[in-house]
Amino acid sequence: MLVSFIIVAYNAEDRIANVLNNLLQQDYEHKKIETILVDSNSSDKTKNVMENFREAYKGLFRRVCVLDNPQKILPCGWNVALSEAQGDVILRVDAHSKIPADFIRQNVICMESGEKIAGGPRISIIDESSNWQCTLLMAEKSMFGSGIAKYRNANSPQYVNTLAHAAYSREVFERVGGYDERLVRTEDNEIHYRMREAGYKFFFSPKIKSYHFSRNSLVKMIKQKFLNGYWIGLTIGISPKCFSLYHFVPFAFVLGIIITSLLATFGLPQLGMLMWGAYWIVAILMAVLSVEKKNFNVSSSALPTLFLLLHVSYGVGTLVGLFKMPSWRKNSIVV
């Protein structure tokens, strides 16, 4: 099978070389891999890294393409790559990722068995080993801090609702079309919903491992959660069925904070006390469950507070997105 290996990157010169080196180490026949690299109008040397890779290794792979995504956002970049891809299998990974040597081969094995969409666990990692970095990683990997998507936590072969770093049969995109270019952060949610509606299943194999470098600061992590929530709020305006109820739990929590605070100002603090008591009990319990003995340190005690910050930032993002959604939907252009 010919595999189209796609990376879309923006200002990733410090990361993309690593995943390209991982690509060189793949144990799948390199002449059956076409590499499609898309630069999203980066202001750093990302495109130079891509072009240097093309010149150095274009004879090693079926071909190596470097393309431009002047609109910068990811769904536009994916569509640029899809318009060029010739592979039987379309395989997407992030620039901020790491893949083992058998990554492509394990995906192809699933596709050769008859699956149309396949993938495995995407594991969050860090490139620093400070106590604070380890604590941020624990918050990111915790089910309480990051979500209950099965591709994060499953350990046996099964069908799931969505995947990260997935491989797709070419026919999938030919049938459902490309990515919705109105969406900046929720393009996967929307297109995976269309794929499920078209009858495709997402096969999870624990043998297909990939790794994603987690945000290396609390500020970046909070910003990421806010924007994730924000784009969920906007996307409701065009594809409300692409989300599960758990996507709105932080939003419900923020609404709970607002409502119970208002009630408290009118002399009715009981509901707020009950909500906050239940929250902190669960947060502390999940923090204890998240801490591995070998990673326990003083900063681990901040986990309950980190959970709160992540939940509130995500929920506030959704609230802001929902508020702006009507005007955004009116002004957005359907591609």
TrEMBL record:
The Glycosyltransferase 2-like domain, residue ranges: 4-176
GO molecular function, one term: transferase activity
Coiled coil: none
Keywords: Membrane, Transferase, Transmembrane, Transmembrane helix
InterPro entries tied to this protein: Glyco_trans_2-like, Nucleotide-diphossugar_trans
TM regions (residue ranges): 245-266, 273-291, 303-323
Tagged with keyword Magnesium: no
PANTHER family: GLYCOSYL TRANSFERASE, GLYCOSYLTRANSFERASE
Protein name: Glycosyltransferase
